[in-house]
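Section 4.2 – Deliverable D4.2 (structural model, holo form)

The reporting period included a commitment to supply a predicted holo structure for the target in complex with adenosine-5'-diphosphate. Inputs used:
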Amino acid sequence: MPSRSSRNSLARLGEFRLIRRLSRRFGHTRPSVLRGIGDDAALILPTQGTALLLTTDLLAEGIHFDLRVATLEDVGYKAAVVNLSDIAAMGGVPQYLLVALAVPSTGKPSEIEALYRGLMRAARAYGVVLVGGDTSASHSGWFIGITLAGAITPGLALTRDGARVGDLVYVSGTLGDSLAGLSLLRWQVGRSRTSVHRTDAAYLVLRHLRPTPRVQLGRLLAAHRLATSAIDLSDGLSGDLAHICEQSRVGAEIDAAALPLSPAARAYAAANRIDPVQLALNGGEDYELLFTVPPRQEPALKQVARRAACRLSHIGKIRSPAFGLRLNRGNGSWERLVPRGYQHFQPHQPLGTEAGHRR
Ligand code: ADP
Ligand code: MG
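Output (structure tokens):
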């Protein structure tokens, strides 16, 4: 059934013509897609000998993104990355994408195309094809729900519950860039000047708007059975590590000095008198992989880092449940590591008022 929509150019274009247009531009196919966009459901030939990975994420305007600081192309890109990152964290190969869209009455066809442009730029880089979706009008902003399907050999999936005492804790990439980038974007709305050098600011903003899903890394970790557990960093290291520890029934120590920060994030922290360790621990939306490996796998892990072209940092160790979660500040100084991930259903700070702590 066509969705109810108000009288704008989108209504004039019509739902069906819009879908046809999106399908022509973005609905490329492959032999395993027996039916893509256009029928009542997509018909897919599963990859032999693999298990199906399914993930979905809903992005709501005003909650997950802010169109004053991001374009719809940015939002589309990020929506794809959020889901690609979930498949990466399981060690799988992302394959098929479905997009559920609610468009406000002010939404234009060109904006929807921009959204799909961003979405498909991220998705196609990993061989993902668009096979369907749903379209509706919205009375309260944009909603973008992405469902991504992927494949993995049964038995190889990286889960959150396999960490063992003595395993080493590793993280990919750098931490805190995304939150720093978001804060800079919001300052640009609230005030006129940013607090760090232009090139640093540009780097941090890009890391917020266009994060990299660690798909190759996840696949290699799974294929070589290197990681005992893994999670992608959406809420922030402290909170996401707590998920692994809870589900694996273990504790962990994290070495503050080993947390990887980019030079730009360090400059941002220094300029704003923010503790870089807190930025690394509690900044969300980095979409790096946090994982655990037995010490004997370290040589193999070095090769994987090279093949995935991705920095890997050894940041801590899995300990007994009684040890809990602790941060080693160096010189014999320890702190309790309190999970401070991003929580929904908490009031958000007004734009331009935060000091680098959205969460
Ligand atoms: P139905 O009424 O059965 O839900 P639709 O008219 O919503 O059918 O969808 C027709 C076809 O277009 C389906 O194949 C569906 O997957 C696809 N489709 C609808 N909206 C989108 C969208 N926003 N992006 C991609 N494909 C879409
Ligand atoms: Mg529909």
